[in-house]
Design a protein that fits this description.
This protein is mainly α. The chain contains 14 helices and 15 strands. Helix content is about 45%, strand content about 10%. The strands form six sheets. The chain has a three-stranded antiparallel beta sheet. The protein has a three-stranded antiparallel beta sheet with strand order 6-9-10. A three-stranded antiparallel beta sheet has the order 13-14-15.
Length: about 425
């Protein structure tokens, strides 16, 4: 693995050094690249790879997939990179078949982590159901397949994982009547770690959308239908359909995936939008199918800001542009501005804290070069001399930050810089 990392590191730094005259950008890119892989990847004896996101010894399906995105531009020219990413995917597929409702897993069946009820799997670190946890691994695998033309990770376990993904999404389209999922965390004092109604979540009505209990921030949702999560699930279902049909010849599963995708998109268009008096038609963040909607955005992916990056719509789509204007304004309660920066934060971190993740997404989805340059300049000013991206930083003083080691943010910064160098990852035009 060390040889693989060294090879792609050298190729990536050469790309950046050729494109940027500012040595500070090169130095920060190099540091973030090293922190995105050093100490986070562990190749297992079974040929899979376990990935931590930084200072927590568990593997999140979402985070581990996103931590690989900045390596995709090199997967075809450095074959060992594709091998490493395939190893990550093999472990993700195994986890999906272990428990499609869990979001984070242990390296071994040792029972570490939260004892979320009901679960008896010693593999599960945390069992917060987030629909994006099903989508992220297959989205990564499909992008790797497009880059290289091969998918050595796609085997019988991956096929079973794809079927489990589809079945779970379809079950949760009728959460109130068909779902056995409940979430309780005994003795927790943290409100965002709880679901109301005995662990079922706030009441929903069937709409064609699929339910989830928690946001990509791992915080409990206000309403049961997470709009960017449903949008991303629709993207991933189309990708799963292509994978199972092309690689396994399973036309029945492919047809079910495409039907589910069509239902989600129709329901999003019918129930996921509202009319803002100034911006016009825009996307809600959450809805319940009972007439209630919440507008906000969160830094974690999938977010409303990230919809083009995840392949749901083009960056110049009118509804997206209206939504983007609202997200990057005080209309979004998680948008913060101060003398040292502005951008999207999260209820997961203190008020007034901006997330580098969201800044990177803002830059990657920006249409204008001036916006991309402004975002890069702000990121360069955000690390408080540490040489790495943090989970969040105060827009009053970047020296006040959360999580000194957050590999996903470092990987995302690398993805942005590489895109600015003409080596974009998935979803960037």
């Amino acid at each position: 693995m060390q040889e693989t990392v060294a090879a792609v590191r050298a190729a990536a730094i050469d790309v950046v050094r050729t494109s940027f005259r500012d040595e500070r950008v090169v130095t920060l890119f190099e540091s973030c690249f090293d922190h995105s892989v050093s100490g986070t990847l562990r190749v297992m004896d079974d040929g899979s790879a376990f990935v931590i996101t930084g200072d927590i010894p568990a593997m999140w399906l979402r985070d581990s997939a996103c931590q690989m995105r900045h390596l995709l531009p090199f997967a075809a020219e450095v074959p060992a990179v594709a091998d490493l990413m395939s190893a990550v995917l093999r472990r993700q597929m195994r986890y999906l078949t272990t428990d499609p409702y869990a979001n984070a897993f242990n390296v071994a069946p040792d029972g570490a982590g939260h004892r979320d009820a009901p679960t008896d799997s010693p593999w599960v670190w945390e069992r917060k159901y987030e629909v994006d946890s099903l989508a992220h691994p297959f989205h990564l695998g499909y992008q790797l397949y497009r880059q290289t033309g091969t998918a050595p990770w796609f085997d019988d376990v991956a096929l079973a994982a794809g079927r489990a993904m589809i079945a779970t999404i379809r079950t949760e389209q009728f959460h109130e009547t068909r779902s056995a999922y409940r979430f309780t965390r005994p003795d927790t004092p943290v409100r965002s770690d709880m679901l109301v109604r005995g662990g079922r979540g706030a009441l929903t009505a069937p709409t064609g959308l699929t339910w989830s209990g928690f946001r990509p921030s791992d915080d409990a949702q206000t309403y049961g239908y997470h709009v960017p999560g449903n949008a991303f699930a629709a993207v991933a279902l189309g990708e799963v359909a292509d994978l199972v049909e092309t690689l396994a010849g399973d036309t029945r599963t492919a047809a079910e995936a495409r039907q589910t995708r069509a239902e989600l998109i129709a329901a999003l268009n019918e129930h996921g939008q509202f009319t803002h008096p100034e911006a016009g038609q825009a996307w809600w963040y959450e809805v319940d199918g009972r007439g209630n909607g919440l507008f906000m955005d969160d830094a974690n992916l999938p977010s409303l800001l990230s919809l083009p990056l995840l392949g749901f719509c083009p960056p110049d789509d009118p509804v997206y542009l209206a939504t983007r204007r609202l997200v990057l304004s005080p209309v979004n309660p998680s948008f913060f501005t101060g003398p040292r920066g502005k951008g999207v934060g999260s209820p997961h971190t203190p008020a007034g804290h901006v997330w580098p993740l969201a800044l990177c997404v803002e830059g990657l989805t920006a249409i204008s070069a001036s916006e991309r340059e402004r975002v890069l300049a702000q990121l360069m000013d955000s690390h408080a001399g540490t040489g790495v991206m943090h989970e969040s930083f105060s827009c009053q003083d970047p020296a006040v930050f959360t999580r000194p080691w957050f590999s996903w943010a470092n990987a995302m910064f690398c993805e942005l810089v590489l895109a600015l160098c003409g080596r974009p990852g998935p979803g960037v035009r």
